[in-house]
Amino acid sequence: MPEGKSLAQRADELEHAAIAALDDAVPCVSVIYTSGEQDPTQPFLHTFMRPDGRKLLMGHDKRLARLPDKPQLLDFFKHRFFPANHVLQSATLAKKAGHPEKVILACLLHDISLMGFIRGDHGFWAAQLIAPYVDEEIAWAIRAHQVLRFFPDPAAGYEYPEAYIRMFGEGYRPEPYVAAAYEKMRRHKWYMTGRIITINDIYAFDPNAQVSMDDFVDIIGRHFRQPEEGLGFDDSPSAHMWRTINWPTRAL
Ligand SMILES: [Fe+2]
Ligand SMILES: [Fe+2]
Question: What is the CATH number of domain 73-246?
Fold first, then answer.
């Protein structure tokens, strides 16, 4: 026999490979992730029944680092969020300025949606993600930073970022719902907390800045109520959002 294998052995191997392929369930990309690149009104190949009979993924995506069974905030920072330099710089500035710990935590968490979930309206999404686990003021401020960053407050030391002109163009104006939210937020008792996030937001990444998550672990411990069951498994109003970050390609 060529290659020293019997036909029966080769048939066995092929069968095993076929079974393994069937076991390798297909990761499913949500319509929103590709909307625009693909026409969202057209059916996806992996939606519902696959013509090749392969199963759809209903759990962990092997291409991603597996989170612990009871994942904590830092597990998400480590395995699901893009590098935290920006928010670490923000939080470091807030710490140096002597702001209270909950304001520092707000700076540390302000962009987590951008970093690992959804970009558009990221302040709103981030606020919802963390609301069950932090002081109400922290979630409010993170929600507000989404809006306040478009409106200067020179008295507080905040000008419209130069970077936004480069990023969105001279002619960009926030939509009316943003302006309406601003009118409410600027009169809110926690306005300055939201404003401080925008003041400590870094629009130009400094590659020489020395920052470390180690400086904030204790603050997280004191102000972020990690659920015993792990983020995603505690039945909070945002648990499903943490599960989606954990398992982004589940079929259902
Ligand atoms: Fe932001
Ligand atoms: Fe930011």
Answer: 1.10.3210
Question: 87: CA distance to ligand 2 center in Å?
Answer: 6
Q: How far is the CA of 33 from the centre of ligand 1 (A)?
A: 20
What are the residues whose beta carbon lies below 5 Å from ligand 1 (ion)?
A: 111
DSSP state letters, 19-55: HHHHHSPBP---HHHHBTTB-TTSPPTTSS--TT-PP
Question: For position 2, what pLDDT does the model report?
Answer: 47
Are the C-beta atoms of residues 213 and 84 closer than 8 Å to each other?
A: yes
Q: How far is CA 111 from CA 14, 43, 157, in A?
A: 48, 32, 21
Query: Which listed ligand is nearest to 203 at the C-alpha?
Result: 2
Ligand 2 centre to CA of 218 (Å) is 22
Q: Quick one: which H or E segment has residue 104? A: helix 101-109
Domain assignments of the chain as residue spans, ordered by start = 1-56, 73-246
Banded model confidence at residue 18, pLDDT cuts 50, 70, 90: low
Q: From the CA of 204, which ligand is nearest?
A: 2
Ligand (nearest to CA of 142): 1
pLDDT of 246 reads: 98
Find the range with the poorest average confidence among 56-65, 72-81, 181-190, 206-215: 206-215
Instruction: Tell me which ligand sits closest to the C-alpha of residue 85.
Output: 2
Cα→Cα distances 26→34, 46, 59, 102, Å: 16, 7, 10, 42
